Amino acid sequence: MDIGMEHGFVKAAAATPRIRVADTVYNAEQIILGIEEAAAAGAKIIVFPELCITGYTCGDLFLQGLLLQKAQESLLMIAGRTKEIDALVFVGLPLVRENKLYNVAAALHRGEIRGFIPKANIPAYAEFYESRHFQEGNREPVEYVLKCGEEEQRIPFGTNLLFEIEAVKGLIVGCEICEDIWVADSPANSHAKAGATVIVNLSASDETVGKDEYREMLVKSSSARNIAGYVYTSAGEGESSQDLVFGGHNIIAENGTVLSQSKRFVNQTVYGDIDISRIRHERRRMSTYRQEADGTYCVVKIPMKKEKTEIARTYDCLPFVPEDKEKRNKRCDEILSIQSYGLKKRYEHTGCKKAVIGISGGLDSTLALLVTARTFDLLSLERGNIVSVTMPCFGTTDRTYDNACKLARVLGTDLREIPIKEAVALHFEEIGQDMDNHDVTYENSQARERTQILMDVANQENALVIGTGDMSELALGWATYNGDHMSMYGVNAGVPKTLVRHLVQYYADTCGNEELKAVLLDVLDTPVSPELLPPVDGVIAQKTEDLVGPYELHDFFLYYMLRCGFEPDKVYRIACMSFAGQYEKAVILKWLKTFYRRFFAQQFKRSCLPDGPKVGSVALSPRGDLRMPSDACGRIWLEELEKLED
């Protein structure tokens, strides 16, 4: 699907051509083929390795004037072949300036050399002896005069060069070379503070055992620390293997996440779709990120055309749930610990020894009860001090009732059944509510009656009421005000619905109790429902996802709206990509409108949330991540969605 440059994406390519040491003509031909291939794939930033025009392993041949002359001629040939290619290309070569030799990256665009970036840090340790040939690059750009026959080109030369690609808002590219990423104060840090959102690195990093892992860590770390995209390209097969072997390890990362990387020992081109709009959002969000103007920088404008390019980047349908089972299990255990230790602190502070929790046989109350049991184990308190209250009413089915009772018993809690039909019916009579009118009053009266009972039992027992509502319900406002969204500590407040299911599954898989596992598996198999409407033939009649939409869609919308700052049309388009074949576009748009409408309309419920632990990068607490006014208008977001139907 085309959601390219207009949505802030830029496709980058990290290319490693097969070269011949000191054969500049052959190497230039291979580089040109690589440029043409990457451009045909839609790449707008194309990066080749360090000194790739000559080869990195030339040794003292770098002192040969003929090699340096031919390298310059090959650069001009490569530049000439880019006249019809609308991409910013970086290639490496040795270059003489004022009788000193520099290891530089040349930036090319549409037939022109737009800048020379010299390597700032020249290694002279272990297997590296670059200082034998090369000088450290100057920071502040100076003018380099390149003679082309009778003509002269005046090109900025210096480390502090940035390239602003005007086709993508906020896309500014900075460059460093190999060793620069390994030092404490790398040029990338300065580039990013000066405004660069993408860093490219032309490298020739040889392979030793375990070095690939460290190299990947460096790239991820630099991209995370600088909140930037990072395109790392390394020399590969073709370099001299007299003493070293080069693996062509290419990596493209964005803000700490690897988008793509090559296999080692295979010269190849890898692509990554870097999301500049997300990088800019993240920099705005992080108040400690300091972007500082630096008068030593020169910004070169690159007038690139804005094009729609098909992106290969994918987005997880379940952004809150790791796809890898091992990572998912680790995440689940970590979240259960966060929930349990958060609740543990509340008990230690208040001195309470008991808990009251309403159990329905549904997922949320099941997870809350499991967390509470785990907390009491940490506190060395008897699980019998947990009062599990089931409160059957008009919509309760035998299945959920039985599961609630079994769960409470197998966990060793104090099970209490308090039916509320008569109390609610009397309340209806008092307020003049027709029993046959199954409106919102009919539903919410039950929820508020349950909360009242829980609070009163807590007073009797000197206990805390444990909240069960999850983050997805809070995002949609799918909670009864002054009802089930009130508690003395909401353990699930930071857990989205799609993750609740996996937490319960993880508990079932690891509890070591077959009876408990059987109950949990049946809870997992039960449709999500508030059970506030009478069942039909004993079966749940009110399914939440039929009313507000699939939670997997809403959690997807929530993550990319709040965590990534995506606009409604971008959320819609990546949802269409991610859920292709699962939901029709019209269905996605329908529920996206529901999400935005409810998200803005229901903030007042989130503004008075009880305490609860944050467990992930998205949270809705008014005291933490989301400082949003209760009466914020969602008009401009909804109007953007209406345009998508045109």
Provide structural commentary:
There is one protein chain. The chain is α/β, with parallel strands linked by helices. It has two domains: 9-302, Nitrilase/N-carbamoyl-D-aminoacid amidohydrolase, CATH 3.60.110; 325-643, Rossmann fold (3-Layer(aba) Sandwich), CATH 3.40.50. Helix content is 38%, strand content 18%. It is built from 19 helices and 20 strands. The strands form four sheets. It has a seven-stranded mixed beta sheet, covered by helices on one side. Strand 8 (161-165) and strand 9 form a beta hairpin. Helix 12 runs antiparallel to helix 13, helix 15 (551-563) crosses helix 16 and helix 16 crosses helix 17 (585-601). The radius of gyration is 31 Å and the shape is elongated. The chain starts with 8 loop residues before the first strand and ends with a helix. The mean pLDDT is 94.
Which parts are unreliable, with pLDDT below 50 for 5 consecutive residues or more?
none
The assigned CATH architecture of the largest domain is: 3-Layer(aba) Sandwich
Using only CA atoms, what is the Rg? Answer: 31 Å
Average predicted local confidence, pLDDT: 94
Give the N-terminus to C-terminus distance in angstroms.
Answer: 18 Å
How many domains would you count in the coordinates?
Answer: 2
Strand content: 15-25%
- Compute the number of helices: 19
Quickly give the structural class. alpha/beta
Task: Please give the order of strands in the largest beta sheet.
Answer: 13-12-11-10-9-8-15
- Strand runs, count: 20
**CATH first level of the largest domain:** Alpha Beta
The residue fraction in helices comes out at 25-40%
**Largest pleated sheet:** 7 strands, mixed
If you consult CATH, what is the topology of the largest domain?
A: Rossmann fold
Which shape, going by the Cα principal axes? elongated
Q: Name the CATH superfamily assignment of the largest domain.
A: HUPs
